[in-house]
Design goal:
Elements lengths: L3 H30 L5 E5 H7 L1 E5 L6 E6 L14 E5 L10 E3 L4 E3 L6 E3 L5 E4 L8 E7 L2 E8 L11
Antiparallel strand pairs: 1-10, 2-3, 3-4, 4-9, 5-6, 6-7, 7-8, 9-10
Bound molecules: FE2/S2 (inorganic) cluster.
FE2/S2 (inorganic) cluster binds next to loops.
Length: 161
């Protein structure tokens, strides 16, 4: 017969163990589902001449922007590690941010949240509470490819839907 003390011990152990397993399984399946497409955005020469390229990633409902900055940037690629890309959807309420080359910042026109593309999209000032999701870039010869997103794109429960 189980006395009150052992019943409570067994109940607590039974309650904690499945919860821990559930968390591990949930995280594993979540990361397994995040298989991003590889997208050719443009060439180094195109970025050299334009400085900014707008595209969509990881799907057509997710506007993004590629920028060649004047300085090396966190996660930057290219000759000076200065090419970066971000989701354009502001983490406050989802308005599309725009790039201001003079200030080297991404600014939301709705409530003026401002993000630093050289510092992993960190919010400088404004209403947002999270950094702008950064699109992970790599080079295939001279072609710039997107291959993932760090951070959660506004309005989504997972970046891949
Ligand atoms: S939607 Fe961008 S600051 Fe509010």
């Amino acid at each position: 017969m189980v006395d009150r003390r052992n019943f409570i011990k067994a109940s607590v152990a039974g309650a904690v163990l499945p919860a821990a397993q559930l968390t591990q399984n949930t995280l594993a399946s979540t990361s397994a589902e995040q298989v991003f497409p590889v997208l050719n955005i443009g060439t180094l020469a195109e970025v050299e001449s334009q400085n900014v390229i707008e595209f969509s990633y990881p799907d057509s409902a997710s506007p993004a922007i590629l920028i060649r900055l004047e300085e090396a940037a966190t996660g930057g690629i290219g000759p000076n590690n200065s090419i970066v890309a971000y989701s354009r959807l502001c983490t406050h309420k989802g308005c599309p941010v725009g790039y201001r080359p003079g200030r080297q910042l991404l600014i939301c026109p709705c409530h003026w949240s401002t993000f630093d593309p050289a510092r992993a999209g960190t919010m400088v000032i404004g209403q947002a509470s999270q950094s702008l999701p950064q699109v992970m870039l790599r080079l295939d010869e001279d072609v710039i490819q997107a291959y993932g997103v760090t951070g959660l794109i506004y309005g989504r429960q997972t970046n891949i839907i």
